[in-house]
Amino acid sequence: MDSYALLIAATLNAGTVLALASLGLLINEKAGIVNLGAEGMMLCAAIAGFATVVHTGSDTLGFLAGMGVGAIMAAVFGVLVIWLNTNQYATGLALSLFGGGFSAFAGVAYVQARIPERPQFSVPYLSDIPFAGPALFRQHPLVYATILMAAALVWFLYRTRAGLVLRSVGESPESAHALGYPVRLIRLAAVVAGGALCGLAGAYLSEIYTPLWVEGMVAGKGWIALALTTFATWRPARVLLGAYLFGGVTMLQFHLQGIGVDISSQFLSMLPYLSTIVVLALISRNPRWIRINMPASIGKPFYPGS
Amino acid sequence: MLKLEARPEPSRAWSYGSPVLALVSTVLVGLVLFALLGKDPGRALSMFFWEPVKSGYALGELVVKATPLLLIALGLAVCYRSNVWNIGAEGQYLLGAIAASGVALMAEKDTSGWIVVPILLAGILGGMVWAGIAAWLKDRFHTNEILVSLMLVYVAIQVLGYMVYGPWKDPLGYNFPQTKTFELATRIPRLFSGSRLSIGVLFALIGVAGMWVFLFRTRAGFALQVGGLAPAAARYAGFSSRRALWVAFLISGGLAGLAGALEVAGPIGQLTPYVPAGYGFAAIIVAYVGRLHPVGMMFSALLMSMFYIGGELAQSRLGLPKSLTGVFQGLLLFSLLACDTLVNYRLVWKHKLEGR
Question: How many domains does chain B have?
């Protein structure tokens, strides 16, 4: 019983990394931009956040450093893609390749570094409930903040004027432009916000989830986060759900190992990647359904009337 | 203020000039980086651009590293020209290496040197199968090939891990996760004694020529590229996009697999967890910097090989991390994409008042 409570707790923890990144990518894609650089941004943010905590001892500063690095990298990507009209896929890929190299380069000195043990977080009273307490209420505050963030994103996208404008930029940039909205600036803002969230995800990974720095530690979570937006058919609530689902799959491998299932660890490690492929296949099976839900101008460049 | 103005047609001069400009700006950033790290920029520069070409032996090593990059990039160019986004060449390369190792491990003391043929074929087949999964899922279920091909890289790394930690582990290898060293008969024949250059170079050169003919002189190659540039026109002309998808994936998977086979049965000589060296990703940069043109990619493969060798030298002689190579590779692709803007646009100075 207790091991299941721990499994649920670990699932929420792992899901939070994916959820943060994927919500960020969702904002990008709602504005019509696909950023394949998520993996690279997360890696650079992970080392930035970790190094900040090593030097300052402050988690919050670490998170801010991660968000800053993510936002800066996303801004470079955004300027290239939005103003210089470079190919979104190729540019995002460049960001991921650069981020992989740069984070490894910058992180060499931190491979052995440790960050001080922090007190375990717990919600007063609720964390004492049997089963539900250890399963749900002993998480880092950011886990709960992520859920609030998803709710806030739903409200922003579907209940505010700004959210409507953001979506219109992703659906039909030409109309938004004709109505006088600064399409390019809105897209840049969305890209930067998305980068900051990916950065926060990376910093959470290295500061709280692991917590240490290993070269290439994001291990495809950026790519899985990208797949999640499709899986969720671009709805924030489903992104959250999908993130926990995949967090659960990641944790399942450790759980199965823990209870002594006789499968090679390599096959268990494949699970998150294989399930991403399977889920993508299932969800993409009906192209019409994807087309209805997908922002219509996703991945397409926009040249304001010249 | 400076504005971009669309050119009536893409500039030919800039399509050649852009990779050069990108390289120059990457080098400039590199020099600043070395200076900031307190290393002599001139010495660092010579490690990247002089040491790899200063002797016959060094040149040979340069070509040895460029060979897999070129083979993989040739296949990727077919993909990108037909708008198929295969970014999982690293996985296809690994499966090629694993399949080739399977055959190589069957060799015994008295096996004939002809075993190299089935080794290479196994490599090609392994790469094709891995690429075929992505193609099939795209064809059958419309899954995004970017994500699937990339996910398969991570799966391939685990398959490799399983093999070297499990069934293929050398029983006499002091428990190291690696296969036994392959028999000498399995070694890819070398061109000269004293150099590590193998017949792999010939495959790459044949690949360049073959790719040029395929892309620019055959109907199939033409159909593939039309499908990439103008899917509607291709449909109208009766060119099948499904066919293009399969052809592009299988060619690139096969070439990546061949590169993997040439590596494990060549310079490496056994299957180890260190087989993945990022060639599959670096080849993406090779393909772009070489303008997706077979001849251009020969040059960019050599350039990328310089980055690898320079990075290794900077590690051993300047005490800098080897990951420096990755930093420069990423920078190069970034600056190339930015410089490529000049192919389709020109910079003009416009006063704020006129027009708007």
Answer: 1
Domains of chain A: 17-111+146-293 (1.10.3470)
Q: Judge if pTM exceeds 0.90.
A: yes
Helix H, strand E, coil C: the string for B138-183 is HHHHCCCHHHHHHHHHHHHHHHHHHHHHCCCCCCCCCCCCCCCCCC
pLDDT of residue B356: 43
Q: What is the pLDDT of residue B238?
A: 80
Enter the DSSP assignment of B5.
E
Residues 272-301 of B with CB under 8 A from A: 281, 284-285, 288
Nearest Cα to B247, choosing from B284, B221, B219, B229?
Answer: B221
**Cα angle for residues B140, B94, A108 (degrees, 5° grid):** 120
Interface of A with B in 272-301 (CB under 8 A): 273-274, 276-277, 280-282, 284-285, 287, 290
pLDDT digits (tens, 9 = 90+) for B35-51: 998 888 999 899 999 99
> Would you state the structure tokens that stand for residue B344, as one six-digit string?
């389709």
Query: Is B143 a member of any domain?
Result: yes
Q: Where are the alpha helices (DSSP H) in B37-115?
A: 41-49, 56-81, 89-104
Residue in chain A lying closest to B322 (CA): A105
For B269, the domain range is 65-289
Tell me if A97 and B85 make a contact (CB, 8 A cut-off): no
Q: At what angle do helices A221-231 and A183-204 cross, to 10 degrees?
A: 130
With contacts defined as CB-CB under 8 Å, which chain B residues touch A284? 141-144
Contact B99, B73 (CB under 8 A): no
- The predicted-structure confidence for B234-243, as pLDDT tens digits, reads as follows 888 888 888 8
Cβ within 8 Å of residue A253, ≥6 positions away? A265, A268, A269, A271, A272
